[in-house]
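Researcher: Here's a chain I'd like modeled. Treat it as a single chain, no partners, no ligands.
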Amino acid sequence: MQVNSNKPELWKADVAASVDLYNNWFLAAAPSAFRESRAKSTEKVRLAFTQTEDLTSITPSTLERNPAVLSTLRMSTAPPIARDRLIGLAGVNSTVVKRMEAGTIPLRISGKIRTRDIGRICEVITRLIDHDLFPWLAGRRQPTEEERLRAALIVADRDCGAAANPIIRNAQEQRQLAMISDFLTGRGYKKVSARGKPPGLAAGTFATRFNVPVSDGTVNIPIDVVIQPHKPNKAHFPILIEAKSAGDFTNTNKRRKEEAQKIHQLRETYGRNGNLLLFLCGYFDTGYLGYEAAEGLDWIWEHRIEDMLQLGI
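Model: Modeled as a single isolated chain. Structure tokens:
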């Protein structure tokens, strides 16, 4: 059963309502989400200052003991440098930088090469360090507590600024999943752990962040919400929902092929049962909707979540 993809006469009004909903949420919730992330970043930066002796010890041995400080060091240069830019400037293996920022040292790379690459990273960071932000470095002295706090706040702001979109996107995704969960539990559904294969989900249950195997089990597709209705279909295959939000029209048109690829993989594996619905909030224009409808995708608008009842929920 089609829910909204076969009703183009409603699309423009739904787009306007969806944009209004997203904007209202953004104005109300985004600042607090950003402040929470900024507070966490500030603590991370202050820890990095301690581990590097207020940036006076940017050495291979320091970074090998505390690899996660690298992300803070990238935001401590003038100008701040992106991860890929650091990889290029230092001429190092990308695995070294990515693993370090995740808090680990890549063990599959030989110790000699790893130490060499970390040394190159230290050279780049030291050369580009923002001396105006850290005035104690030029004077070879201990920073005052006021200087240290001011620098930490600025570096944290840089860190959050670089990650602003992911911060907002993550907050919106959590809110959407919570909204769907509340809708389902209010109708007698029970949330279960995201394990096993979709047809094995018991009637009247749902799971979030469920990996659905495709391509003979060689690939897992992450699905945000998997729902097994109280009265399952004959194939006992659940309803698959992907939560989507967007703060501008340009970004959605760049990402629209991702969902189309998912539904193609699902249908190649599960046939007609491999349906995927989108749960939309934000800037999804009629061009995006038309493209997804042509690819066989349907959707539920967040501002009209009760449309989920048409799925037999």
